[in-house]
Fold this protein.
Amino acid sequence: MATATAPALNKRIGFLGSGQMAEALARGLMKRGLVSGDRIACNDPNPARTNLFKSFGATPYESNADVARNADVIFVAVKPQHVAQVLSEVRPVLTEGHTVVSIAAGITIDKLVEAAGPDAHVVRVMPNTPCLVGETAAAMCLGGKANADDEKLVRTIFEAVGKIYTVDEKLLAAVTGLSGSGPAYVFMMIEALADGGVRAGLPRDIAQALAAQTVLGSAKMVLETGTHPGALKDMVTSPAGTTIAGVHELERAGTRAAFMNAVVAATDRANQLSKM
Ligand SMILES: NC(=O)C1=CN([C@@H]2O[C@H](COP(=O)(O)OP(=O)(O)OC[C@H]3O[C@@H](n4cnc5c(N)ncnc54)[C@H](O)[C@@H]3O)[C@@H](O)[C@H]2O)C=CC1
Ligand SMILES: O=C(O)[C@@H]1CCC=N1
């Protein structure tokens, strides 16, 4: 788990794009004490988004280039199809002191360097929205002129809001399919479990709280005991008991294959985005 508070980072953070993922990251970093709002610069053509960033103390700028002028770490947090454009806007003002961190799904290091220039220190990260609550699962790879200092900096940022692993770039599509998109699968699971509880007679608020806490507790058991999830499942499953009746229904519905297929489909989509 990320530490409750992190030592303040002596860097200014910029966001090119102030959407959902930028917000989750900015708020998560502020909550952990890594940066204060007055060290965050942002740009977005949507005034609702810049006003929201302003409301928590960030400074909106008129252009992406102005964000770069007022930041050391620049998060590229626009949709994949806008990445080349925003990087071309900041390219003229990039210096050796900038670390450019793209979180865009499917946009390769080659494309990032092509757009940002051969001297850019480029890091590609695939995070997920739980960075808002200090529990992101992220992976990164380095490109361009990015060096060990850039890696350390990006690691410091993401370790303040969860966990980050360094992987070969060829694995980032699978990371996207599993943990990048994964919160959506888990939210669907929580919603469905809560619906089941309501169907069985529980009040909605209690059903949702029980469902979410069950996912949290089970995830913690996997992480803290290191025991195989199958063995942990067996510990819950009494002969002729209640759990095996539920497990049998999940197997009948092909739940495991559905989760595997979801990860593979999202991975395939990430690979497709790389080729566009
Ligand atoms: N939402 C998620 O869970 C995750 C998203 N990502 C990646 O993060 C990136 C952003 O995704 P979201 O935050 O979900 O999208 P979003 O649509 O919420 O945010 C993108 C923002 O970029 C702004 N924008 C569009 N053109 C711009 C420009 N020229 N300059 C500055 N801002 C511009 C849009 O107005 C919007 O507010 C995507 O590339 C996505 O692949 C990565 C991991 C998880
Ligand atoms: O759905 C998407 O394309 C983005 C990337 C990973 C999570 N959300």
Summary: The mean pLDDT is 96. The two ends are 36 Å apart (CA to CA). Strands lie at 13-16, 40-43, 59-60, 73-76, 99-102, 121-126, 136-144, 162-166. The first strand starts at residue 13 and ends at 16.
